[in-house]
């Protein structure tokens, strides 16, 4: 190692809003900022890296759940003339901090070769009964049913009673393996250490990713949360704010106070228009699984971690629907400790925010088979569940849950139905129609699009170059009111249901290992015609 410099950011000033800065020398190639010890009442630590002209290069945030940030010269910004790292304490005071605690290290790249870690493989998995699920309610770690992490492709097929699950499939496999190999060779050639698992975020838009959520909160704003990018690295820029008036992005992780959710994939983010809050539930991160509930109050811009009562297993790639102030969670993948693989759920869990409690309803009728990566949308007091998979089977069936009777039934549809798929995009287009786009069929990402009419129970295929030109899976699709370029304010009244709508598509991955950061739009009216 060519050199090591360590500095303490602790000040003896005990008032709130403590802030300190440190100069970064031009010779520094890698910087790592981390926190350790008890956080006490402190919420987070905001961090900003600025160049010699005091222009921000990058920004981030340390929380009790995200305790490390890193920057590398040439990738995260150029500080050939030096830079300044500013750290600001948010919430609480410094009086409980250990004066000897080191919160920052600046480290030169070692003169040794570190190979890029090999991509993980996941074994097959089996289904489990509801009783087995309940035994695992508090188990938070296990094998992750995440498509990019598996090693081989499996053709979807219906299995007989004695046919066990096959190996996991792998999305984005060919180019990703090539990228990892090229990256390893590049690091060997340069003699530099492989970067820690974090990603560089352009300042003007989110980095490419899949498995994120995009949640509208008002006619002009949507919130992007989480996701995973290249080489299975979780996004370093997990939270963004989208302004649909000019389609601009703003980094939002440091905008809100309180404990932000840990980086994750396969979670859900559901907005309640009555309380104006976003509910983030579940998801996974490598071998760590979540059953926590984080709430973002969009009026005060503060995160809250709910101490919920009742039982709900850690779940990922589930669906979550808001109905009359409660969250209805269906399906998803849940973990089982080694050596058993993970399995899919066919249960419904309901979260009541007012009581902060989970409970399971009595559900009648013909229930869907266990699955994950499916879609669910609420329309006219019913939840329509489409597709998903339970390895190696992909589904294209559809069920409807009557929320008044709490009864499932099979939807008998006519027309051209979508082929079996999971991780597809789904968006409500009108009171009686919703869109299904893209997804993953067990071998490839898809690009086709379909509209289902709930009044006629009929499928219709769509042919639009914008939708059909690029295969996508794990992407986000939402509809929002078409905003005017002038006269729009935060206090704007709710628009009528007949107002023009715009379809927005963001992110996802394709068959070549690419992860998209683009955002494209099209009028919903074109899809209805």
TrEMBL record:
Region spans: Disordered: 123-212
Domain of life from the UniProt record: Eukaryota
InterPro entries: Kelch-typ_b-propeller, Kelch_1
Swiss-Prot/TrEMBL keywords: Kelch repeat, Repeat
Pfam families, per database record: Beta-prop_FBX42 (PF13415)
Database matches in PANTHER family: ACYL-COA-BINDING DOMAIN-CONTAINING PROTEIN 5, RAB9 EFFECTOR PROTEIN WITH KELCH MOTIFS-LIKE
UniProt name for this protein: Rab9 effector protein with kelch motifs-like
UniProt source species: Sinocyclocheilus grahami
């Amino acid at each position: 190692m060519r050199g090591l410099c360590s500095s303490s950011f602790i000040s003896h000033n005990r008032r709130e809003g403590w802030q300190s800065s440190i100069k970064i020398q031009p010779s520094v190639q890698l910087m790592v900022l981390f926190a350790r010890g008890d956080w006490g009442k402190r919420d987070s630590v905001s961090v900003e890296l600025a160049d010699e002209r005091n222009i921000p290069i990058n920004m981030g945030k340390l929380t009790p759940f995200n305790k490390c940030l890193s920057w590398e010269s040439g990738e995260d910004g150029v500080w050939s003339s030096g830079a300044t790292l500013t750290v600001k304490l948010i919430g609480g005071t410094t009086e409980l901090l250990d004066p000897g605690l080191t919160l920052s290290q600046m480290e030169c790249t070692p003169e040794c070769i570190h190979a890029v870690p090999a991509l993980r493989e996941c074994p097959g998995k089996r289904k489990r009964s509801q009783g087995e699920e309940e035994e695992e309610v508090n188990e938070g770690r296990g094998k992750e049913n995440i498509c990019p992490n598996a090693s081989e492709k499996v053709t979807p097929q219906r299995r007989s009673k004695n046919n066990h699950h096959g190996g996991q499939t792998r999305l984005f496999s060919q180019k990703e393996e090539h990228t990892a190999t090229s990256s390893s060779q590049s690091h060997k050639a340069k003699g530099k250490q492989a970067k820690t698992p974090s990603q560089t975020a352009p300042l003007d838009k989110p980095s490419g990713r899949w498995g994120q959520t995009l949640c509208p909160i008002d006619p002009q704003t949507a919130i992007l949360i989480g996701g995973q990018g290249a080489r299975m690295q979780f996004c370093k820029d997990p939270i963004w704010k989208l302004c649909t008036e000019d389609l601009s992005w703003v980094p939002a992780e440091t905008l809100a106070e309180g404990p932000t959710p840990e980086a994750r994939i396969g979670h859900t983010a559901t907005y309640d228009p009555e309380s104006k809050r976003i509910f983030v539930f579940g998801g996974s991160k490598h071998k760590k699984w979540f059953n926590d509930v984080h709430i973002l109050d969009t009026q005060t811009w503060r995160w809250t971690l709910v101490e919920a009562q009742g039982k709900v297993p850690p779940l990922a790639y589930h669906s979550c629907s808001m109905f009359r102030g409660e969250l209805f969670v269906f399906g998803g993948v849940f973990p089982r400790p080694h050596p058993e693989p993970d399995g899919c759920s066919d249960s419904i869990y309901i979260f009541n925010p007012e009581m902060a409690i989970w409970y399971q309803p009595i559900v009648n009728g013909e229930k869907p088979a266990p699955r994950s990566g499916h879609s669910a949308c609420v329309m006219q007091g019913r939840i329509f569940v489409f597709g998903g998979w339970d390895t190696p089977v992909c589904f294209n069936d559809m069920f409807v849950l009557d929320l008044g009777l709490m009864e499932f039934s099979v939807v008998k549809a006519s027309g051209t139905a979508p082929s079996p798929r999971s991780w597809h995009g789904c968006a409500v287009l009108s009171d009686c129609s919703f869109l299904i786009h893209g997804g993953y069929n067990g071998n490839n990402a898809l690009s086709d699009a379909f509209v289902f009419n709930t009044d006629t129970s009929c499928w219709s295929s769509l042919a639009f170059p914008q939708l059909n030109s690029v295969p996508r899976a794990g992407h986000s699709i939402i509809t929002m009111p078409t905003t005017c370029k002038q006269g729009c304010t935060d206090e704007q009244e709710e628009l009528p249901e007949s107002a023009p709508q715009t379809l927005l598509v963001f992110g996802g991955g394709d068959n070549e290992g690419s992860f998209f950061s683009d955002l494209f739009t099209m009028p919903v009216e074109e899809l209805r015609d």
